[in-house]
Amino acid sequence: MCGVFGYSGEEKEDLAGYILEGLKKLEYRGYDSSGIAVFKKGKVRIIKEVGELANLRKRLKGKHLSGNLGIGHTRWATHGGVTRKNAHPHTDCLGKIAVVHNGIMENYEEIKQKLLGLGHKFKSETDTEIFPHLIEEKIKKDRNLSFSEAVRLSFNQIEGLNAVCACCSDGEIVAFRKGSPLVAGLGEKGNFVSSDIPGLSCLTRKIVILEEGEGVSVTKERVVKINSKTGKRALAKETFVDMEEKEAARGNFPYFLIKEIFEQPEVVARVAASDKKEIKKAVEMIKKSWGTYFTACGTAAHSGLAATYMFSEIAKRHVNFAFGSEFPYFNDFLVPKSLLIAASQSGETMDTLEAVRAAKKKGAKVLSLVNVPSSTLTRLSDKTILLKAGPERAVLSTKSYIAKLSFFLLFAYAIAGRLNLGIKILQETSKEMVRMLKRGLEAKMKKLAKKLSGCEHIYIIGRGVNYATALEGALKIKEASYIHAEGFPAGELKHGVIALIEPGTPCFCIIAKDRAKEAVLSNAMELKSRGGYIIGISSERQSVFDVWIQVPEVGAASPIVSIIPMQLLAYHLTLIKGYNPDRPRNLAKSVTVR
Ligand code: G6P
């Protein structure tokens, strides 16, 4: 979480505005607060604001802060509340060194106590603030020490997974990374640092990839790599990254979330048109492995869970699933012939990356499904399948979930030797999704949202592959509308959860035309008998339903169509409650802390 951005180059009339533009592309990483530091002729101006970047923009209105060096930050709070004081950049006692940071400095308390003992004054409650003071202390002790050396030595003192970016008045930005993502970029009139490659889209295609423990010194003239352990410096070599993805625009849609929901039929069609050779290569890795494990977080995790059912039913293959954050405690049986399949929209989720690193330590192979090209996960993997869902800007993940489900379905059919059938199912599904959305599904879900907006709890049940759909539907509803929603395996209700059902409690029942159908219907009846208000998501009307949300009959692709009504419901509940569907509170699109 947190986005960092920096520029060192030719003087810009409105450097503050320029840095804001850079931060705009990183705002998905956190929007608790934001701030910038702009340097001109040795003087620094720091402006910070709480809340979305738009608030900082308002504060900057009319102030054309020119300069040749600047850094900016968009924050997802970890240490210290959401206040202007805790917003980055943070400075040293003299206010000359400015620092922005992504990660957690795990030993900050101990370092802070030492620095306080040495007379340093702190203004915030953050872990980050120790960093400029550490640099200040090092320079105070050794006047001959260069700024970049002081930053490197300070970086080596901190523990945890961090990306730190520091600058002072002499035109140089010094940044280091360990665990957290960071890249540099070479521009025409200046050079950059950014938390990720998309942050530099529209600015440059010449990217300097930083490996673990590497740092950079970025000046107007050059980008020099620094080894954090030895201090060895070398002129950085750039990689050309084709940023085909144009800056995503909302078009005629009021929010990215609704636009991305409506893009889903196209995403499924695109997956169906994937290069068969690529699918076959991925499938060969699965077939060769002595055990296949899925890992992912959040919405991506639900796609992994769905995949375990698809693999069992379609490919007759046993696979395992564990959340990224749980995987390191679950990997003792990995051997070099094991395969880990990691799925991630951003390719930067720390827990997923840590799972991959743990697997690699055991010598296992890694296959990844990633939406953002050139992200860290793609670099760690033996093979990557790009989801090609296009830029996903809403914090709620929708179209990349659909893309992952579609690829997993293709993998399962390919293992079974029926790849063409898998492709055909996806092609049909895509067409059916277009029809379903045209038939007025959104209006229906809007009407239902009005009815449900005042309720406290929503329950969702499904069996088999649609147990994953139930979990994902509940996640969509709660993360956007803040209404408590829970997904359950339908059969588990009678073992406890049914106690929560009262007259009128909304219960979504996902009923596909598969082998689980009769059992889920019975569970729906059990809920109805206790007064549950039954909303059926199904291709067939059933007498138990109080409301029927019709979805097309698409066989094994049922999780792809069944999630859409709940995505739409989440969107409309959120609007009715007056929240921003693209930016739910407390969340970030890419979670880069563990
Ligand atoms: C965050 C987002 C979720 C997302 C999860 C995993 O928690 O808010 O929407 O599903 O991260 O992200 P990834 O980029 O790895 O798919």
TrEMBL record:
EC assignment: 2.6.1.16
Keyword Ribonucleoprotein in record: no
Limits of the SIS domain: 282-421, 448-584
Keyword flag Transferase: yes
PROSITE patterns: GATASE_TYPE_2, SIS
GO biological process terms on file: fructose 6-phosphate metabolic process; protein N-linked glycosylation; UDP-N-acetylglucosamine metabolic process
Domain of life: Bacteria
Reactions that this protein is recorded to catalyse: D-fructose 6-phosphate + L-glutamine = D-glucosamine 6-phosphate + L-glutamate
InterPro entries in the record: GATase_2_dom, GFAT, GFAT_N, GlmS/AgaS_SIS, GlmS/FrlB_SIS, Ntn_hydrolases_N, SIS_dom, SIS_dom_sf
Positions of the Glutamine amidotransferase type-2 domain: 2-221
Keywords, sorted A to Z: Aminotransferase, Glutamine amidotransferase, Repeat, Transferase
Signal sequence, start to end: none
Enzyme class: transferase
A GO molecular-function annotation: glutamine-fructose-6-phosphate transaminase (isomerizing) activity
Family matches, as NCBIfam families: glmS (TIGR01135), PRK00331.1 (NF001484)
PANTHER family to which the protein is assigned, alphabetical: GLUCOSAMINE--FRUCTOSE-6-PHOSPHATE AMINOTRANSFERASE, ISOMERIZING, GLUTAMINE--FRUCTOSE-6-PHOSPHATE TRANSAMINASE (ISOMERIZING)
Protein name: Glutamine--fructose-6-phosphate aminotransferase [isomerizing]
